[in-house]
Predict the structure.
Amino acid sequence: MSAAVPVLLVTGASRGIGAATARLGAERGYAVAVNYRASQAEADAVVAGIAAAGGTARAFQADVSQWPEAERLFADVEAAFGPVTALVNNVGGTGGVGPFAENGPEKLESVFALNTFSAFYGIRLAADHMARAGGGAIVNVTSQAATFGGVNISAYAAAKAAVSTMTLSASRELAGQGIRVNAVSPGVIEAGEFLDFPAERRDAMLANLPLGRFGEPEEVAEAIIWLLSDAAAYVTGAVLPVCGGR
């Protein structure tokens, strides 16, 4: 593959915001690495859809919350496409809804590994690729829960708050290497665990949204791809809310 083709790696890209970002990235000219941990059939479907639309993509299995697997993922992507020049640290999850008292060591370690450690690993590995490629851009997917706290998802809110702060630190440290680091902070999006929420909880959340509707994964993807693009060349260290005003 020509070195002129930018290489986009999206973690947790088999569905939801990750899948929407992978599809839009391919449409905008990236060769897309669709990362998944266990959902191979869904990842393959994303790749097939991109290929049917004339884009370039491949699925790559790795649990990016584990350092050795994250290392392997970046090596595999470089072998297939070349150095990663755009990264979306999208993988994440709440670890389950429950009161603060249920945040024992096992849950905390799992939630922070999935949301925070994965982003740390991704930035560190991508920085090496991007420095060799002459620069690049990283977008972390955090959450509005990191800003206002999350009732019964306190571990997740804390882990995402760490991602938001990490975004600022990395943006300052990596700017001299031509690497921009930003984040999007989605609100309530029709994706992931939200799809399994009971109707009464969905209704209560909807009542607090100024725009009067839930967001779509494609709307978050648009913000992500813009932050990766040259149109945002002077934007780094930003945490962009995509939240319907919440």
